[in-house]
């Protein structure tokens, strides 16, 4: 669909100037990427206001300008469309432009502080195994069946979301499982998307740098459920304090999962070891390769979504029991008698869960050494909390760098150290260089010990001052363990 008036279907307009029948080559929100006859949508951002770049977009050949405030100078031959909310208009326009792909594929969005990637990855693997052509939009990667399309964000921008869904529909996909980050919800990256269902995993401390307060962060997640249509399902984790808040104004079908509270999808943990989980689900005892109680929640979420999409519970459990999960989530590397675990835990709750899971399966006096850092230019308030958790739950904690971005790495490390009391500081080491930190953890270990390398999971870079340097925890751990243990 590329006639402007069709692209504007269902967009809340304030006024228009110029030819509404004109053809639009593409929809762009970055003036630097404008091509001839593009429609440039001016969006106010966190750094700059896209309205400032209207002249630059015209210079590059934009034929249509979509904005919340019309510029003082109106140029002859250009169509101006004034809208109530540009970010929202961008999503709706992109959906129209790509032929409303979400009308033709069942899209399920997963939100929550932790567990989004794990949940959507399990769903994608499960539905592929069950014979469906399936799409995935996640932090680690985007996928159309087994074809990988690299991901730059947890949730892509509004135009990319629709373009990717179009590709999925063209490839015959019937389902798409996607993460909806709180940034994406607030920034309307999923506006215009018709969802078959939405899932809430949990909400704990993160991203206060962006949302300001925890209440605002809750509101961001809640918006996903407030905007759901009547025919969609809303599946929430009943054991999370905020589950009912999510459902409060939700028109969709309310569904719950949980281990403790009464829930539509409920399970009991029978055993939880480093080999996997055994769950009792409605009397069906099922073994899974996922580790930790938190993964019991993720598995229940996956089961709930599948059943709500019409799948047979027994078949789902059978297939799900053979699936491993997402890259960088509790990846175990055992070499020379030492077990290292690479995990993406980068929030206090995730770190606490992973460490408690490891402590729950520790058998004797083996040491647990945790290597952890906190991201630069991200929520500073989680730094002391994460450090405190690492020290409390481990034999020794080594604080190191994790994407310092534009901050001084030593400043970040000082913020972490501030969370550790004088009596515990002797249990810590601070080694800025991540490779050296991992090396030290290995040198301090003996046979039987466990090392947790937290925070980066699947990431294969260390981001310093705008440059991504190759760094892969699993790679470094494997190399150093092999070298230092002589295996
Ligand atoms: C803080 C944040 O979320 N920023 C996102 C936001 O950019 P922004 O609001 O800062 O944009 P801006 O630089 O102020 O520019 C405003 C507008 O002017 C336009 N512009 C700008 C310059 C110019 O020359 N011409 C021009 O037209 C820009 O294209 C933009 O439309 O919109 C951009 C387009 O969608 C995103 O790429 C960008 O993600 C940045 C890179 C980012 O790091 N985001 C992270 C925090 C993020 O989104 N994370 C979540 C996951 C969080 C989680 O794990 O839970 C994610 O979904 O990935
Ligand atoms: N349901 C859960 N509850 C709490 N912690 C979890 C849960 N699932 C996973 N985790 C922990 O959180 C980490 C991140 O998990 P995952 O990547 O699935 O979350 P995410 O919500 O996609 O995170 P992000 O917002 O950064 O993309 C995991 O490595 C694990 O440590
Ligand atoms: N999606 C999260 C990822 C954090 C991962 C961690 N390695 C870091 O860089 O802080 C964010 O952008 O805040
Ligand atoms: Mg994710």
Description:
The modification N6-carboxylysine is found at residue 221. Its cofactor is Mg(2+). Catalyzes the addition of meso-diaminopimelic acid to the nucleotide precursor UDP-N-acetylmuramoyl-L-alanyl-D-glutamate (UMAG) in the biosynthesis of bacterial cell-wall peptidoglycan. ATP binds at residues 112-118. Meso-2,6-diaminopimelate binds at residues 378, 402-405, 455, 459. Helix content is 32%, strand content 23%. The termini are far apart. The strands form five sheets. A nine-stranded mixed sheet has the order 9-8-7-10-6-11-12-13-14, with helices on both faces. Strands 18-19-23-20-21-22 form a six-stranded mixed sheet, with helices on both faces. Helix 4 (116-129) crosses helix 10, helix 13 (382-393) crosses helix 14 and helix 15 (434-443) runs parallel beside helix 16 (473-485). Helix 13 (382-393) links the parallel strand 20 (368-372) and strand 21 (396-399). The protein folds into three domains: 2-97, Udp-n-acetylmuramoylalanyl-d-glutamate--2,6- Diaminopimelate Ligase, Chain: A, domain 1 (3-Layer(aba) Sandwich), CATH 3.40.1390; 101-320, UDP-N-acetylmuramoyl-L-alanine:D-glutamate ligase, CATH 3.40.1190.10; 331-485, Alpha-Beta Complex (Protein-Tyrosine Phosphatase, Chain A). The protein is globular and about 75 Å long. It has 487 residues and is an alpha/beta fold. The site of ligand UAG has 19 residues, from helix 6.
Quaternary: single chain
Given the structure, what is the number of helices? 16
CATH class of the largest domain: Alpha Beta
Rg estimate, integer Å: 24 Å
**How many domains comprise the coordinates?**
3
The largest β sheet comes out as: 9 strands, mixed
Strand content: 15-25%
Architecture per CATH nomenclature, i.e. the level-2 architecture of the largest domain: 3-Layer(aba) Sandwich
C-alpha end-to-end distance: 60 Å
Q: Choose one word for the global shape.
A: globular
- Chain-averaged pLDDT: 96
The unreliable regions are none
